[in-house]
Design goal:
This protein is α+β, with helices and mostly antiparallel strands. The protein contains eight helices and 17 strands. An eight-stranded antiparallel beta sheet has the order 1-2-6-7-10-15-16-17.
Length: about 325
C-alpha cells in the first residue's frame, strides 16, 4: 500500500512483549491481511527482547552482565548501538542517567530478581553502588565489542522499548504501511496521517487519576515517551519509592516529579530522555532541556495538586 485515501480503514492490533503490551493502529485498504502485520510486529519485538532483556538469561545483555571480569563481548549491531546511545546520554547528563544502575534497580525490587515492599539495608545499597559507573564500560566501535570490568550490570529497560518502537516503525514502512501509530509500554511513535487526513492524537496520562489525560496532542512523524513514578512503586511507612533510582545516592529520587513526557524525532531518543529528566529533577531537567531545545513536559506534585512545567518546544507542539 503506497497511498492512503478516504476509503481506507484504520486497523487495530495488540500483543505482549517485554513484560508489557504493545498496540498498533494503521491505515490500509479494506481486506488488508492484518495477520501478516500482527506476526511481523511480534517477531520484531521478540527479536529486540531476546537481545536486550535482563529477564532472559540467554539474552546478549544477560550474558554480558554475568561474564567474568576483563572479558570482551561482541554484540549485535542493534544491541551495541543502544548501549552506545545510553552511555553517551550518561556522559551528557554527567551520570544522572546511568544504564549501569541495574544492581540498584534489583536491590530495590524493580528488576528480574523480584519485587519487594521494604527498603533495602544500607549495606545492600552500598554493595550495589560499588558495581555502578557508566564510565567503567569500555567500547570498541570498530568491532562492536564492550568490556566487562567486573560486576557491571547494564539495564536497558529505560531505552529498549523506545528502540523497539523505532524498529517496528521502520519494519511497517518497509511493508508499505505508510500511516501508523505504534506503542510499546507507553512509548509511542506516529507516521503519516489517518485516512481522513487528520493526525494521530495521543493523550498524556494524568498521574494518579485513572482514565484521565493531562493533555492531548497531534503526533506526526514524531515519537513521545512518558516516564512516571506512579507506574512502578511501593510504599513503606510514610515513604513512597519509585523505580527511578539515583545512581549516586543509591535511592529513588525524592523530588516531586510525577511524570515527564518528551517529544523527539525517534523513540530511541525520547525514551531515555524521560528517565534522565526525572533523575535530573524539574529545575536541572528544564535547564538541560531548554539548552538543547528539547520538547519536555514535567508534571509536578504541588501542594494544591498537579503543576505542569514545559519547555517552549513542548508548548509549540501543543499548539500544532
Amino acid at each position: 500500500m503506497s497511498t492512503i485515501d478516504a476509503s481506507a480503514q484504520v486497523y487495530g492490533l495488540r500483543g505482549q512483549t517485554m513484560g508489557t503490551f504493545w498496540s498498533l493502529r494503521f491505515a490500509a485498504a479494506a481486506g488488508f491481511p492484518t495477520h501478516a502485520i500482527q506476526s511481523g510486529v511480534q517477531a520484531e519485538l521478540d527479536r529486540v527482547d531476546a537481545s536486550m532483556s535482563t529477564y532472559k538469561r540467554d539474552s546478549e545483555l544477560s550474558r554480558f552482565n554475568a561474564a567474568a571480569a576483563g572479558s570482551w563481548h561482541t554484540l549485535s549491531g542493534a544491541c551495541f548501538d543502544v548501549v552506545e546511545h545510553a552511555l553517551q546520554l550518561a556522559r551528557d547528563t554527567d551520570g544522572a542517567y546511568d544504564p549501569t544502575v541495574g544492581p540498584l534497580v534489583n536491590a530495590w525490587g524493580f528488576g528480574p530478581d523480584g519485587s519487594q515492599d521494604s527498603v533495602p539495608s544500607d549495606e545492600v545499597i552500598a554493595a550495589a553502588r560499588e558495581r555502578i559507573g557508566w564510565w567503567r564500560i569500555e567500547r570498541d566501535a570498530t568491532t562492536r565489542r564492550i568490556r566487562q570490568p567486573g560486576g557491571a550490570y547494564i539495564d536497558l529497560s529505560s531505552i529498549a522499548k523506545g528502540y523497539a518502537v523505532d524498529v517496528v516503525g521502520d519494519w511497517l514502512t518497509v511493508q508499505g504501511v505508510t500511516a501508523w501509530l505504534i506503542e510499546v509500554g507507553g512509548e509511542m511513535k506516529a507516521h503519516g496521517s489517518k485516512p481522513d487526513g487528520s493526525s494521530w492524537r495521543v493523550g498524556i496520562e494524568m498521574p494518579d487519576v485513572p482514565d484521565r489525560y493531562f493533555c492531548t496532542l497531534a503526533l506526526k512523524d514524531m515519537a513521545i515517551a512518558t516516564s512516571g513514578d506512579y507506574r512502578r512503586r511501593f510504599a513503606e511507612g510514610d515513604g513512597r519509592y519509585s523505580h527511578h533510582i539515583n545512581a549516586r545516592s543509591g535511592r529513588p529520587v525524592p523530588h516531586a516529579v510525577a511524570s515527564v513526557s518528551v517529544l523527539a524525532p525517534s523513540a530511541l531518543q525520547a525514551d531515555p530522555l524521560g528517565t534522565a529528566m526525572t533523575l535530573l529533577g524539574p529545575d536541572r531537567g528544564l535547564a538541560y532541556a531548554q539548552a538543547r531545545d528539547l520538547a519536555v513536559l514535567f508534571v509536578l506534585r504541588a501542594q494544591d495538586g498537579l503543576e505542569p512545567r514545559l519547555t517552549p518546544a513542548f508548548a509549540a507542539a501543543l499548539q500544532a
